[in-house]
Amino acid sequence: MDEDEKDRAKRASRNKSEKKRRDQFNVLIKELSSMLPGNTRKMDKTTVLEKVIGFLQKHNEVSAQMEISHIQQDWKPSFLTNEEFTQLMLEALDGFIIAVTRDGSILYVSDSITPLLGHLPSDVMDQNLLNFLPEQEHSEVYKMLSSHELVTDSPSPGYLKSGNDLEFYCHLLRGSLNPKEFPTYEYIKFVGNFRSYNVPSFSCNGFDSALLRPCQVSLGKEVCFIATVHLATPQFLKEMCVVDEPLEEFTSRHSLEWKFLFLDHRAPPIIGYLPFEVLGTSGYDYYHIDDLELLARCHQHLMQFGKGKSCCYRFLTKGQQWIWLQSHYYITYHQWNSKPEFIVCTHSVVSYSDVRVERRQELALEDPPSEAIHPSALKVSTEPGRVSKCRHAQHQQQHLNPHPDDGTSSAASQLPQLPSSTPAAHTGSAAGSAALPAGGRQVILGPGRQDPAPSPHLSPPCFRGDFSPQD
C-alpha cells in the first residue's frame, strides 16, 4: 500500500508539472499569434510556429543586409547614428538623396532638396526627372539611365561594384513661390550607383524598406539609380524650410524705428541669438533682401493704424539659415501723455509649404505639378558654379555704396531711421547672365570622365510676392 501511494503521488506530481508546462506553452503560443498580422483565431500551434520562423528568417536577412550597408566606424564618430551622420554629410555637401528608375521616374527624394532647390519632396516624387531638366539635356541623361545594365558577376553586393557607379553633371530646375516666374536652373552633380530593388506593393513612401532587402537581380525586381545630388558651388545661406514645430513663437519689443529693445527667452532656440546680441540693432538687418519692400509697407501700415499682421518673411538665424516668420504687432502708448512708446511683436514660425500656398493664393494661382520647361525659357550665367543671387548682388552693392538708389532702398527709406545696411553674412556672390546658344556645350559627363570645364550656368530666381499687409 505504501508503494502504491508513493507511485500515485509521483504520477500526480508529474501530471501537475506536465500541465503547468503545457499551460506555459499555450500562453506563449497565444502571445506569438497575437503579434502575427491578420486573423490568427483559427491558426493551430504548428501554423503559428511556422509563421514566426518565416518572420525570423526574413528579419535575419534584413539584418545581414543592413550590416553590409552599415557605415563602418572609421567613417564616422562612434557617438553618431547612421541617420545623424548621413544628415550631417548631406548638409556639408549641400546635397540630397534621390532614387530614380531607369526611365527617369523619381521614387524617392530626401527632405534636404527643399532648402537647396525650393522643391517639396511631394512635388518631386512620382514625377519624371526629365521634367526638371532643360530639354537639350534630356537625351543624354535618359540614355545614361536607361542603357545601364546591373553588374552581377560576383556574390558581393551590386552597389559595391565600380561597374554600377555613375557620375554626371546637369542642370536642375529650381522651385519658386510663383510658378509664372522665369524658370531658373541650378548646376548640380549626380554621384551614385545602380541597385536592384523589390517592387513595393504600396506607395513610394515605403521605398526605403524595399531597399533593405537583399540586393540581387531576380524575377520581379527592378533596377534604380540611387545618387547623392549636390550643388556644384556651395550655398552658404539656406532656407530652413522643414520646421519640426511650426507653432513655435517668441516675443520681442522694438522702438518705433524697429530697433530691438527686448527679446524673450523663447527666441534663442528658434533664431539662435541671445538677447544681448540683438539689443540696439535694427530688425531690418536680419531680413531677406527680397522681403524688405513688403516689410517696409507693413511697418508703414503699423505706424498708421497702430496694429496689424505682417506678411511671411525670411529672418536670418545665427546659424546662417533663413527661417520663415510671421509677426503680429501693436503699438503701446505712454499711460500719462498717450504718446507712442514702443512696438510689441509676437513672431510665429511658418513652414515653407504654408508660405508657398499663401503666396500662390495671393497671386490667384493654383499649385500645379511640375511641368517640362521649354528650352527657350532657359537662362544661364557666364561663369561656372551655383546659381548666383541677383538680389543678393544688389544687396552687396548696398554695403559698398552707403546711398543706394534702387527701388527697395527708396521704398524703405520712407520709414524713420530705416537702416541702409545689413550684416555681411547676408550677401552672396553675383554673376551676369546671358542666353544659352542653340549649339551650347553639353555639361553632362558619363562615368570615368573628368569634371567639365567652365560651362554656362543658369540665372538666379528672384522670389517676390506682391500683397498688402493684413490687419
UniProtKB/TrEMBL annotation:
UniProt-listed SUPFAM superfamilies: HLH, helix-loop-helix DNA-binding domain, PYP-like sensor domain (PAS domain)
Task: Give the compositionally biased regions (Low complexity).
Answer: 419-440
Q: Which Gene3D superfamilies match?
A: Helix-loop-helix DNA-binding domain, PAS domain
**Which regions are flagged for Polar residues bias?**
407-418
Cross-referenced SMART domains: HLH (SM00353), PAC (SM00086), PAS (SM00091)
Keywords in UniProt for this one?
Activator, Biological rhythms, DNA damage, DNA-binding, Nucleus, Repeat, Transcription, Transcription regulation
Show the GO cellular component annotation of the record: CLOCK-BMAL transcription complex; cytoplasm
Region described as Disordered: 1-21, 384-471
Q: Where, if anywhere, are coiled coils annotated?
A: none
All residue ranges annotated as the PAS domain in the record:
82-154, 259-306
Where are the compositionally biased (Basic and acidic residues) regions? 1-10
- BHLH domain residues: 9-59
* Protein name per UniProt: Neuronal PAS domain protein 2
Organism (species): Phyllostomus discolor
